[in-house]
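Summary for the funding panel

The consortium committed to producing paired sequence-structure records for every protein in the target list. Below we show the first two records in order, beginning with the earlier of the two.
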Amino acid sequence: MTRPRLTLLGLPLDPVTLDEALGRLESWLDAGRPSAHTVVTLNPEFIMQARAEDAEQGGESAFTQAMRRADLVTADGVGIVWAARRLLGEDVPRAPGFDLASGLMRRRGAQLRVFFLGSKPGVAEAAAAAASSQYGVQVAGVHHGYFDRNEDQRVAELVRESGADLLLTGMGAGRQEMFNEYWRDVMNVPVMLGCGGVLDVLAGTAALAPDWTRRAGVEWVWRVAGDRKRWGRAPRLGQFVLLVSRQSRSGGRS
């Protein structure tokens, strides 16, 4: 029985297991076109960034709107699991972005046409080659993520013309979710997943966190500690803990 969607700190959250999430993605693939669904893998950084953008704009930001309109929002990390238990009294399973992408490619294999969009020039090509070799998927197309917003329509039309079944969009928090949401009807891809650094992991330019950190749900600690480029993101994690603690003390449920 499917559990109803939750609202965590003003954003949607679907309490689905990894298998349930993959089953839903496969049902969208089986439904065929016209069909366009967006998937968000929610983490503490998303929540803090969206709240900051909402405050700056004096209302709901495009990032927040994209997450609200997503067809599936899963818990990416242990921070979301902890917050849902603390604020909502709900046990929410994790369904991280890498596990969704790799799981779907493993299940569908050669039946699946994938467009790899994001990261630096050359990375999407390497990710596509690795995914084709490891999972047997068809490569619908590739494009780096370093393009200006005035090129969004061109890239969206490129994705549409590719006939992709799955779009992996790795352009960073906010940018990837907004791109998928805004251009969803143009691209008309059954499953569009904002996947962060998944392309880098597939390409071998970034390491997947060790199994023990993934089992414990604390791979973000390993990543932040091991990559100086991520150190600037650490304060947001601290802010998230404080936000959840304040909400919990005040009895907040939003």
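The next record, for a separate protein in the list, is shown here:
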Amino acid sequence: MASASISTSSFSSKSTTFFIFVCIMFLSVSVAESVPVNETRFKPLEELKNRRVRAHLKKINKPSVKTIQEPLYERPKGHNSSDEILERIQLWTESNEFCPDGTIPIRRTTEKDILRANSLKRFGRKIRRVRRDTMNGGHEHAVGFVNGNRYYGAKANMNVWSPRVTEPYEFSLSQLWVISGSFGHDLNTIEAGWQVSPELYGDGYPRFFTYWTTDAYQETGCYNLLCSGFVQTNNRIAIGAAIYPRSSYKGRQFDIGVMIWKDPKHGHWWLQFGSGMLIGYWPSFLFSHLQKHASMIQFGGEIVNSRSRGHHTYTQMGSGHFASEGYGKAAYFRNLQVVDWGNSLVPLSNPHLLADHPNCYSIKAGKNNVWGNYIYYGGPGRNGGCP
């Protein structure tokens, strides 16, 4: 096993405002470090806490690593992958410095990152949600979805905003979900998109993110590369990096492409970002139900409403404006597609629409010859109709 190599290359001052990197080999294989009870029984509680935080940081930032060969894969039919364009959609790439071949960029986790979470166990994980069709744990959604069939992936373009998040333990995100199992203890999900999470990143910038779970957010899975699972193979895109540029109200609209699909050859779930950039894959063995196929696909937004002040949060979803305002004002997903049993991309037809609290965050769907199937979604949170 080789040690992780730390990149000491300098970055532009603008880039380092948002990102500190280490470059490691393709696959992190780490063993959780624990503090022996007999060594800490008489230690002060604060010292024990600090030791555990440092041990967790060591595991995340300097894991044992091994190189792997990227497995063969087959992209869905109907996808044009002839040209993989390195777009300037992440601030750190403005320095024109990338990790060497055989390594990947990883956002360096700091002690402050961990201490912002309520607990070490919670760090890098979503608060558990029991059901998708009710508000639970403060999570609210405005999504378009399809179910009742077998799905092998999804693709869409989503525009990027900087929604306001008003409480430290809240977040606002826009993503696509690949789902299987029941909304109980055996829920399997794969998720990717952009999010604003002050707790996780310490700022209010929209960042490219991934998530997965195989037991309804209880014990398995995490954001980005904060636990073993997702295998990144791309050295030019950093998961967790700030996205730039962003959309502006009544101004320029900027969107990113995301595709997740199940490779028919090996069964792994692959992630593509931007214009054909393969990021990596979730191995099939991580999952139970998703070893076969997905039973639901969702597109849209999610926020956490903590009600910490006794009323609905002011946290925004999408642009912070309702779906009815339309282009240039509301957030959107366009070119909604799913991957069918024949590994072909097909348009999403007649999506179901669900807004947990439509006076806070709304959604509407449409179709035209340029965008195909699309949705507008989002809202301001607390307002006259959303107490």
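Regarding this second record: The mean pLDDT is 81. The first helix runs from residue 13 to 16.
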